[in-house]
Amino acid sequence: MPLTDDQLAEIEAARATPQPTLRAVAPGMEQHLYKAVPVLDHGFVRVIDYMGDDAAIVQAARVSYGAGTKKTRDDSGLIRYLMRHWHSTPFEMCEIKLHVKLPVFVARQWIRHRTANVNEYSARYSILDREFYIPEPDALAAQSTVNNQGRGEVLQGEEAARVLEILKSDAGRAYNNYEAMLSQDGQQGLARELARMNLPANIYTQWYWKVDLHNLFHFLRLRADEHAQYEIRVYAQAIADMVKDWVPAAYGAFEDYRMGGVALSAKGVEVLKRRLAGEDVTQENSGMSKGEWREFVEVFG
């Protein structure tokens, strides 16, 4: 179960006793506060707190650029201008704090985004629960033959069953040994900080993760992309749905210029010009590597 009965009761109590405030609130985000969105088999994402909204981005920008901008651009237009021209500071005026439960191997990928504040559940002080991420059959795939970081064809039949059984049995055996090594029930055993080293990377951990909107957009651009690893992508997609309700104008600009946009190299621009001029351009005469050319063709055909 993603949340314990005590945690669910705490959430219901918090939502049942709203407090008046003079701070700006985003109605779209208020509906998400505290609620846990299930992710994977045992994970979740929930909003603990947030600061700012679309208006906060505009307010910060007009402090930077002067009151005259209000006469020439409406709020949505200004936000799109900021996004289009990579003026990131106004987006840093919004922040969000999330409670996330996720497998350790996903957390180690996630933590590469170092522009956030993180506090993780400590297995030095506490005993981790017997909860492991076991993929659904359609998430079991072989190594890609063209991408060292990606997946290829989905495993089928006996091979899929064999892999699933290994994942389940290894996780269970490792946790049994973890429990057997702990200093508890009158046994001297190992300290928790040592016993934890035997746990598998698919065991679940939890953390609080606080980040500003500019850096959150960078996270979403990479992790909500269709090429991202599935296990982190589903978390990013759950967060993206919350952000869309929180700052709809900013998220719309983000979708347009970042998620739906394409960054071209100088070689890419030159190839487009040559194509528009009617020239037959191939990878061999484009000046691009095979990898660059493959990515170019995926977008422009």
Automatic annotation (TrEMBL):
Species of origin: Roseicyclus elongatus DSM 19469
Coiled-coil zones: none
Swiss-Prot/TrEMBL cofactor(s): FAD
Protein residues bound to dUMP: Q109, W110, I111, R112, E120, Y121, S122, A123, R124, R196, R223
CDD domains: ThyX (cd20175)
GO terms assigned for molecular function: flavin adenine dinucleotide binding; NADPH binding; thymidylate synthase (FAD) activity; thymidylate synthase activity
Binding partners and assembly: Homotetramer.
Transmembrane spans: none
UniProt protein name: Flavin-dependent thymidylate synthase
InterPro entries found in the cross-reference section: Thymidylate_synthase_ThyX, Thymidylate_synthase_ThyX_sf
Organism domain of life: Bacteria
Function comment: Catalyzes the reductive methylation of 2'-deoxyuridine-5'-monophosphate (dUMP) to 2'-deoxythymidine-5'-monophosphate (dTMP) while utilizing 5,10-methylenetetrahydrofolate (mTHF) as the methyl donor, and NADPH and FADH(2) as the reductant.
